[in-house]
Amino acid sequence: MFKRFMQLRLRDLVILAVILFSLPAFLDNPFHYELATQMAIIAATVVGLNLLVGYAGQVSLGHAGFFGLGAYFSAIMTGSYGWSALPALLVGAILVGVIAWIVGRPILRLKGHYLSMATLAVGFIIAIIINNETGLTGGPDGIPVAPFDLFGWELSPFGSYSLLGVELSGSQAWYLFSALVLLLAVWLAQNLIDSQIGRALRSVHGSEVAARVVGVNTAKYKSLVFVISAIYASVMGSLYAHFQGFITPAVAGFDFSIVLITMVVLGGMGSTMGVILGAVVLKLLPQLLADFQELEAVMFGLILMLTMIFMPKGLLPTLQRSIGRRLKKKAEGQA
């Protein structure tokens, strides 16, 4: 059983890699590459959030706050203090992890809507600080961000690069880089899920009382996954800031937190590939509804509502179950 489970994990990773590296054949212009890069970065963010929500069963309505902290830390340290992007990203992730551990210890003792309100408050506090510290963050006007540099190699959407003899535009290079980051994020998440930590998280999700009875330190594992998901958000926030070249407090806002949690629920909680699908769908919907600008919010809500009614487990798990039933009926009919 475990061997088959690992084979399925590897299969999913290979399928994702094939999709990511085949996608450029269907991307026609820099805007398409920009959208695909944003999808990859946001998808990696919700992969981390899914560890907290889908596997540990802990709701976070303020996760954009950690995303914004990573983005602003990189922007400030590279722009005002001359740091390279990679050290800024790593130090920012460590600091965000420490902050998540400090605030997570008390609030993760709460349950249900009390936990939701507490995480919402954390997100609001971070967003307010970013918005009000005008001298440091630029306030509501935002702040420019330096291009991402790695060991003297600068990655900019406006540059041109040569990879194995192939000439790439800056937007193409950024997409390939973000695709690799997404694959790494998924691989790390899958390894965590398959480890002792992952089993402990699933037991916490199932029943905290039962988990404690069998010796699982629920407080420890809830804090750990909260920190891990915050680090995911911080790293992706840093990359997003460097890719965009300019950020505003919206990256830490309540609206973005709701979008992130909706991606997890829509794609399928507890399904790594499902939440990636949720991220893609919610990033594409505004583009598909561009001709209905005055009705965009209504149609957006209607689509989500219908999905939750008819696919309560999420898009991917529902589709997998439906395909599995059809294949089973077909096999039974042939027998």
Automatic annotation (TrEMBL):
Superkingdom of origin: Bacteria
Keyword NAD: no
GO molecular function terms listed in the Swiss-Prot or TrEMBL record: branched-chain amino acid transmembrane transporter activity
Primary localization: membrane
Membrane association type: Multi-pass membrane protein
Transmembrane intervals: 37-57, 64-83, 89-107, 114-130, 173-193, 224-243, 258-285, 297-316
UniProt name for this protein: Branched-chain amino acid ABC transporter permease
Organism: Marinobacter lutaoensis
